[in-house]
Amino acid sequence: MAKLFLFGIGGTGSRVIRSLTMLLAAGVEIKNCDTVVPIIIDPDARNGDMNRTVELLKTYARLRKSLEPAPAVGDFFHTDIKTLSAIAQSGSGDVKDAFVYDFGNINESFRDYLHYDRMPVESRHLVDLLFTPENLASPLTVGFKGSPNVGSVVLNGLMGSAEIQAFANNFNEQDGDRVFFISSIFGGTGAAGFPLLLKNLRYPDLSGGQRLPNEKALREAPMGGLSVLPYFKVNPSAESAIDSRFFITKTKAALSYYETNLRGLNSLYYLADPVTKSYDNQEGGANQTNGAHFIELVGALAVFDFMAHSKAELQGQELFFEYGLEKDDRPVRFGSLDADKSMQLLGRALTRFQLFATFLTHGLPGTMDAVFAKTLQLPADWKHDDFYRALRELLDNPAYGFTPWLKELATNDRAFAPFQLGSADYNDLVHGQRVETGFFDKGIVTNSLRKSLDDSATKVTHTTRPGQFVELFSKVMRETVDSKIKGF
Amino acid sequence: MFQQLFTSLYQALLGTPAPSSLIPVYQKSIFPGVGLSTFFAVALGMALVYYVVLNRLMTTALFKTSHWLLFVLLTALASAVLAYSQAHSVVTESLNSSGVALEGIEQSAYNRYVLGFLCVNALFGALFFVFWSFVVKSFSTSARTTPVRWPN
């Protein structure tokens, strides 16, 4: 059972994991991996972006629990997502069953965290040299406010934690386990956390800190990272410590640090886009909920790319990747992606899932007494069964659902808008790829989908009812998209 | 066999045909003819149209129980029309060949019996359609569970 330990560091880490989860829900295959184990590292416990990603992950995991044995490769929800404590076989006694690293509610200032007032005067002078008075006074409850120098100190404390010990304990190189880090380079938490975690996980013996179990396995394990360069800015605000005018400067400084100090990575993915979008300036907290962005979706593709490489390919010299759009379009459509790679990876899968979501919204209520619905006992189970409730949450929850995610992507800048959202016309689902219709062929309509579902309902092989539901819909949506929607 | 079967069925609900001069015509020709036509041509035909043509060969939205009930009613109606037209044409032909005409009480007895006959045949048509539904529905794609999932 190969696992991917996915460290999402800071707000960008959470947002990329959100996109990745949507792609996994859509059935995009993550090679060489059965289970993804996300570990979100963000000291800002109330961060809106983080919390909605966590809710999404919890919903996915809940839903996925009903789907054992796993759906087939390419079917919706094929890949499992589990918490660290759920996969742990040993050494996880103190680890909470959560996707987020537990910072234990840091509610003190950075000054108090350092015990500044108890330091010898020489140490205080050194601290004064490295940190501004604002840094020292800053409460850590909302994270590091874009200050990597603060983050690097606080995050160093991670290594002795039960979570990291449990991670190392359960890392099994023989199974093909891998590690991937997702972070931004222009903020505080991600920029500081990524190199720190990499160094401490890869070379715990050299870092002078806490030693880890399985050090040899970790030293040889494939590790990759995504570093996201500035792709948005924030509105100027006198009350906020975050000023996006410094994003580029901070990026340059971090890159120059990475150039000489980032060691031990097998693959590094860089991602950037000319900045056009300004978000509200929130230092952190519940109000920091940036709309989903195309760059985060592309960031998620880095994980798929990393996992698609064989271990042998990754164990030569360090590999570096950047991403280029086939066409510099605004908004981005499927036709803007390169036909051989990105389009193959996500075009059909996202379309299948969107067709599925559209049918469940517009088609299912009128087909509850159809053969497929009766066979799956949907009239009885749809409203109250845990699996279907989780599915509806995953698709439609206004904070973290698939449909709101697509809407956010479509209204951001640069927008990713491949679908005609809100329309019940399946033939017009994909922008620029309208289904051909004729006198005898109405294309994709509720009746044709229902008939295909009816036809396949008795052929499903899964042993559980939710498994049959996923198998049936995956099959019919695949056949419909492949046969009717041209251009993939 | 069919003659005996259908005669027994119709007479169980309608009583002996009236006027009595038409008893042989009903028992030998009308009951078995209408019974067989209703059972095979009308009820089976309608069931095949509903389950195979509309809900397998064609892509329609007529898979619901309400649509099935509509077909029960249509089958009953067709069975009633069949009963009336068959009875009328056979009786007319019989009377013409024997040179006898129905008058007065006989005519009104005939009218009452035919009315009862078409009502009973409508009921039989509906029942036969229900019977054929359970036989034929496994050949359907979209109405395999209409009106109920059993036995599929």
Automatic annotation (TrEMBL), chain A:
Domain of life assignment: Bacteria
InterPro entries for this protein: Tubulin/FtsZ_GTPase_sf (IPR036525)
The protein, known as: Uncharacterized protein
Organism: Hymenobacter coccineus
Automatic annotation (TrEMBL), chain B:
Transmembrane segments: 30-54, 66-87, 113-135
Keywords: Membrane, Transmembrane, Transmembrane helix
Protein name: Uncharacterized protein
Protein source organism: Hymenobacter coccineus
Lineage: Bacteria, Pseudomonadati, Bacteroidota, Cytophagia, Cytophagales
